[in-house]
Amino acid sequence: MTTHLVSAHSPVLNLRDRLEYPEAGVLSKIVFQDSACQYTLFCLAEGTEISEHTATRNATVHVLEGTGTLILNGDVISLDPGTFVFMAANAPHALQASSNLSFLLTLSATF
């Protein structure tokens, strides 16, 4: 069973209150998940790299705090607070955190 940070009984969450940076690497927390979408809060320590990979679902990244670089389909995208990126299913992407970096990742069903 997956624990969600929000539910029908407690539908409001301040994501900033849940930011927790590891000393190294990645810390992720599922905010909510159902059959259509999964919302995950990611916190990456400064200098963390996620090597190129793909996802079988459409995805969005909404940067909350920090800075980094996303390479999506070979394009370099600067990540700063407020940046919102759509990634189509199966798009190759990689990420590097220039500073402690947090974002909300949403994976959604493709139709």
- How would you state the average pLDDT, rounded? 94
- The H/E string reads EEEEEEEEE
Strand content: over 45%
Approximately how much helix is present in the residues?
Answer: under 10%
What shape does the CA trace take?
Answer: globular
Structural class designation: mainly beta
Spatial separation of the terminal alpha carbons? 26 Å
User: What Rg, in angstroms, do the CA atoms define?
Assistant: 14 Å
Question: What is the compact description of this entry?
Answer:
This protein is mostly beta strands. The protein contains no helices and nine strands. It has a five-stranded antiparallel beta sheet with strand order 1-2-9-4-7, with no helix packed on it.
How would you summarize the topology of this molecule?
Layout: E1 26-33, E2 37-44, E3 49-53, E4 58-65, E5 68-72, E6 75-79, E7 84-87, E8 93-97, E9 101-108
Antiparallel strand pairs: 1-2, 2-9, 3-8, 4-7, 4-9, 5-6, 5-8
